[in-house]
Amino acid sequence: MQKKKIILWTLLSVVILFCIYTIGGSFYLINFALLPSEKDNVEKVTHKNDSIYSFMKPWTDSLNKVKAIHDTTIINSEGLKLNGYYIKSTKPTRKTAILIHGYKDCAYTMMPIAYIYSHELGYNVLLPDLQYHGKSDGKAVTMGWKDRKDILLWAKLANTLFGNNTEIVVHGISMGGATTMMVSGEKLPPYIKCFVDDCGYTSVWDEFNYEIKEMFGLPAFPLMYSSSALCKLLYGWSFGEASALHQVAKCKLPMLFIHGSADDYVPTRMVYPLYKAKPQPKEIWIVQGAPHAKSFQLNQKAYINKVAQFTGKYIK
């Protein structure tokens, strides 16, 4: 009898410890991933851009001199006030780019890409802060999943700001790339014409699973499952449903996939199933030697030419 009690209490202790580990670990993972304490702001990003790209300070100074960068806001379906910036082309044009930043970044992170579209290609540009980033409201980071609906609202605003016959390319980097792909699987308005994904992940599940192995050496079970369920309970979405892979499979519009061959943050291997799942028309460019989100920084002329060539087929 005494031996049975010891076994029972041992088993019970193991179960209790497992539950504590799972619940505590889930809250830690959710807070770590979706409520980051450090996020970029305009001042920090502007300084970083100026130090990396020689063209940035003269260009942004010229824009600021004539007050060409405008603030704007929208209210989304959840009542969140979302911030954005826009730059109108100096010449009348229907061409518009919506540029989507990455994880813990802000809209100004995409200013070097705005330079391509605005300065080089003569587009109007709209740069939104995603939920819980920059000056936008938000309960937590949504990793692009809830943001996909917001981007459709931003596109509607762009069509009003820049003329009712605007033609839009949506271009995102990293989490912004995943957001771009998630948008692509929705029912789209006629003014969205094509997409550019730069180093986006296949799904939030795949990306988080990869990261907890890389950062903490942990397997998917049980934390990925319990954390995904907790995310669903707290924020209304799960890691598995937030799938760029499933969304691109529904996309009939053109998409350019860009990914660095040396990406070890969103591993390069993720781009291949995304490209395979996407119906035609589509293009892929693997940038040799480029780490995560560095394809433009390290290959500026080639990147500009690739984007110009691709978008030029679908936006006139």
TrEMBL record:
Q: Which InterPro entries match?
A: AB_hydrolase_fold, DNA-binding_regulatory, Peptidase_S9_cat
Q: Give yes or no: UniProt keyword Flavoprotein.
A: no
Top-rank taxon of the source lineage equals Bacteria
Give the matching Pfam families. Peptidase_S9 (PF00326)
Q: Which residue ranges traverse the bilayer? A: 7-30
Q: Which residues form the Peptidase S9 prolyl oligopeptidase catalytic domain?
A: 144-315
Coiled-coil residue spans: none
- Which Gene3D superfamilies does UniProt cross-reference here? alpha/beta hydrolase
Question: What are the protein's UniProt keywords?
Answer: Membrane, Transmembrane, Transmembrane helix
Q: What is this protein called?
A: Membrane protein
